[in-house]
Amino acid sequence: MHPPVVLVTNATAPDKLGGLERYVRELAAALVRCDVPTTIVAKRLSPDLPPIETGDDGVTVVRHAVPAKRSPLFAVQYPYRTRSGVRTAIDRRPGTVIHGHFPVPMLAMLGPGRSRRPYLYTFHAPVHQELLTERQGTYLLPRPLQRPAVELLRRAEAAVVGGATAVTVLSEYMREQLAQLAPQAADAARLIPGGVDTDWFSPPRQPQPDTEPLIFTARRLTPRTGVVECIAAMPAVLARHPGARLVVAGDGHLRTTIERQISSLGLEGRVDLLGRVSEARLREGYRSATLTVMPTAELEGFGLTTAESLACGTPVLVTPVGANPELVGDLDPRFVARSGDPADLADAMIRLLDNRAVLAAARRALPGPRVQSWSWPVVAGHYIELYARQAWSRS
Fold first, then answer.
1. Which residues is 75 bridged to in the sheet?
2. Secondary structure of residue 160 in the 3-state scheme
């Protein structure tokens, strides 16, 4: 029988629907399907959410309380409240393998005066670099505190990584990022790619009709994800392909800015913002698209949108940023734009839309063996192997 596992993270789906949140929940569900009892420990995002619940997927979620984001003392109180909540949840579950996915809650494993329990840590991204761009507008962080907060978070990440029994990364790009934080951990880290539900994200049974170009992307509306640059590229694309349309699934603090951008560029009816969408609508977006675009401006630990689209049989144009080039490495080199600049994105989109033979060849090659290596049964199996290795020393 496999030892029980506790996944420690910041937040989990469906409470929040970002890439990390979906990854942790889907990994937990995959582990349960492999007969591994699995609990997620995450923060409680709303008073309406129960402190403890078990979902239809068999995953138990334990939510700990955190201070309100708009509290002037949020930045001070949050680490201590989080550490206390996580520590309590873990102490109530002795004999479990601990698998961390976010640095701040994992500080609970480093407290003085307690017997140290071994833990595995997956380095998804350097969170300290995302602090200002990804979390902007979600809590009060006065400008004088920004640089110290980033440095404190960097040190926390380094301590968490350094204290892990084993570390995994989702891509070689993320190994490079980890090397800047903890070189020895990066050298020893094992690469286990992100997971995709390849039963759900799969090609349509019937080929899509050859219609006007439909470009799709699923991105948080933040500076890092490059949605602003992608939309800025659309006037040039439309000059070449007047019937083209860009559909964006996702939400974020830049939505109002992007809505104004669409209006100022005269792109109403050519660019659609869907906001948050269901899994069914997301899959439909991938399947119906002529081309998916991942216009990442900075950081991309794995590239979930890229992986899901490829699993659905739709090729993806990516920027040469983060792990995305690794994911499309089996496709034509033209699926990697020169940069995330709007002009380069436009040029890459136009070249692909002009050459439907390249798109058709890519569709015939997908999903392919590489995509199958990202399926959750395969990914969960790699982790179960690691859990078994450290189970002997857990307390």
1. none
2. helix
Task: Indicate the length of the chain as a whole number.
Answer: 395
CATH 3.40.1110.10 for the 5-195+375-391 domain, yes or no: no
The burial of 59, by beta-carbon neighbours within 10 Å (0-12 exposed, 13-18 middle, 19 or more buried), is given as buried
Which strand (E) or helix (H) includes residue 352? helix 342-354
- Which fold does the domain 214-372 belong to in CATH? Rossmann fold (3.40.50)
Give CA 104 to chain center in angstroms.
Answer: 17
CA distances from 177 to 100, 129, 299, 300 (A): 18, 10, 9, 10
Query: For 36-47, what is each residue's pLDDT tens digit?
Result: 999 999 999 999
The DSSP string of 224-248 is: GGTHHHHHHHHHHHHHH-TT-EEEE
Q: What is the pLDDT of residues 22-65, one digit of tens each?
A: 999 999 999 999 999 999 999 999 999 999 999 999 999 999 99
| pTM of structure | 0.87
Q: In the chain, which segments carry CATH 3.40.50.2000?
A: 5-195+375-391, 214-372
Alpha carbons 268 and 264: distance in angstroms, whole number: 9
Please calculate the CA angle 232-235-238 and round it to the nearest 5 degrees. Answer: 135
